[in-house]
Specification:
With about 250 residues, this protein is α/β, with parallel strands linked by helices. It is built from nine helices and 14 strands. Helix 5 runs antiparallel to helix 6. The radius of gyration is 18 Å and the shape is globular. The structure holds zinc ion.
């Protein structure tokens, strides 16, 4: 099993260290800065040998080069981002696997937030590194992709097993919960979760990772094909992607 260490960086980003104990291999996911990842690796006696990047935004990649310079680690990044990320050693695309010692991740291309975004699903570890595609109770803004692309990307992630832990790129959950309640006010599971989130944040605790089964029941962006939500938005007969686009639009203005 992977040891997963969450490393808060910058303002509200999460980077991660993944350690595969059988072969003693360690990966850093989305190191938006190098220092905290090096410190965390040091504290555990681990050496970073891989960097896994989800997309080209600076708050996810800015520390990658320094880590490579210092450790000689291998940078794994989306093939579609090759022109936008420096010194990529391994370019990955949809359906490929990335080995980390005795375990491995399956790569999903999830365009929407950016056109080249990928996520890494460690199947045996029930762990999804979702970057800025799927957040706890939210999803990434559509900077480069369309609502159609993002809905398709999220639909693919939604099909993963309920027990999957979702390790996303930001601690945005409290604000996402307030928005989710405005879209889905009668959802009892969401109301309960919003209370838990408020308590965790009051105690300065992370709300990430979340559990995919809980996201399926409470995240409005994964529930755009629920008739009840369509109805509340006045989009009764609209296709799910139109409902999704409306939810995304409202979130941008929230
Ligand atoms: Zn981003």
């Amino acid at each position: 099993m992977l040891d997963i260490v969450q490393v808060p960086i910058l303002g509200d980003n999460y980077a991660y260290l993944l350690h595969e104990p059988d072969e003693g291999v360690t990966a850093a996911v989305d190191p938006g800065e190098a220092g905290p990842l090096l410190a965390a690796a040091d504290a555990h006696g681990w050496t970073i040998s891989y960097v896994l990047l989800t997309h080209h935004h600076a708050d996810h990649i800015a520390g990658a080069q320094a880590l490579r310079d210092l450790t000689g680690c291998t940078i794994v990044a989306p093939l579609a981002d090759l022109g936008r990320i420096e010194n990529v050693d391994v370019a990955v695309s949809d359906g490929e696997t990335v080995s980390l010692g005795a375990t491995h991740a399956v790569v999903f291309e999830t365009p929407g937030h950016t056109s080249g975004h990928v996520v890494y699903w460690f199947v045996a570890d029930d762990a999804l590194f979702s970057g800025d595609t799927l957040f706890a109770l939210g999803c990434g803004r559509l900077f480069e992709g369309t609502a159609e692309q993002m809905w398709e990307s999220l639909s693919r992630l939604r099909a993963l097993p309920d027990e999957t832990r979702v390790y996303c790129g930001h601690e945005y959950t409290a604000a996402n919960a307030r928005f989710a309640r405005s879209i889905d006010p009668d959802n009892a599971a969401l109301a309960e979760r919003a209370e838990e989130i408020a308590k965790l944040r009051e105690a300065k605790q992370p709300t990430v990772p979340s559990i995919l089964g809980v996201e399926k029941a409470t995240n409005p962006f994964l529930r755009a094909d629920e008739p009840e939500i369509a109805k509340r938005l006045g989009l009764d007969d609209a296709p799910p992607v139109a409902v999704f686009a409306e939810i995304r639009k409202r979130k941008d203005a929230f």
